[in-house]
Amino acid sequence: MIFEFQKRIYGYECDVYGHLNNANYLQLLEAARVEAMIKMGMSIKRMRELNLQILIRNFNLDYKRAVQHEDLITIRSWFDEISRIKQHWIQQIYDSSGRLCFEAQMLGVFASEGRAQRLPVEVFEVFHLYQESKAPS
Q1: What distance in Å separates the CA atoms of residue 127 and residue 27, rounded to the nearest whole number?
Q2: What is the pLDDT of residue 114?
Q3: Could you say which of 7, 32, 49, 126 would form a disulfide bridge with 75 (CB–CB 3.0 to 4.6 Å)?
Q4: Mean pLDDT throughout 14-28?
C-alpha cells in the first residue's frame, strides 16, 4: 500500500535561498513513515507496547529538484521488502505540481532493547498486509 502525507513548507524549514533545508528532509520522511505506521495499526506507541523498535541501518537520498518555500508537498511512502528482521522503505516527495523532487530508500532493522530481533509472526503478518510490490505510477 502506498501511503500519502501532505505538508506545507514554512520559512523556518528553508535555507537562505528559499529551498527546503537538506537537514529537514529526514524529519519529513520520519513524519510520513510514522503516519503510515499509525494507519497500519503499528504506531510507535503500539511498537513500544510490544517492546519493538525499528532502527535505521541505511539511508540513500536522491535530491532531484528543490522543494520551495510555501509549497504543499506530498510524500508517498511504502515498503517493498520485509522479512522478520528488516524492512526496506521507499519515499518520494512531490511538489504541488506533481513533479518528483526527492527520493529516499531506507533500510530498517527490527529490534528490541536496541538489539536486532526477529518480529513476532503476528506482527510480521500485520506489516506484510501493507507491503507494496511496485512503485506508484
Answers
A1: 22
A2: 87
A3: 32
A4: 94
For 114, left (φ over 0), alpha (ψ -120 to 50), or beta? left
- What does pTM read for this prediction? 0.91
Cell of 51: 517492546
Decide if 71 is catalytic.
no
The pLDDT of residue 133: 72
Q: Decide: 60 and 101 in contact? Cβ < 8 Å.
A: no
- Is 90 in contact with 135 (CB distance < 8 Å)? yes
Q: Which domains does the chain have, with CATH numbers?
A: 3-128 (3.10.129.10)
Tell the residue number behind the cell numbers 519515499, with chain if given: 91
* pLDDT cut 90: percent of the chain above it: 93
Q: CA 13 to CA 113: how far, in whole Å? A: 33
User: Which residues partner with 17 through β-bridges?
Assistant: none
Q: How far apart are alpha carbons 28 and 105 in whole angstroms?
A: 14
Query: Helix, strand or coil for residue 113?
Result: coil
- The CA distance from 83 to 69, in Å, is 38
pLDDT recorded at residue 134:
63
- What pLDDT shows up at residue 2? 94
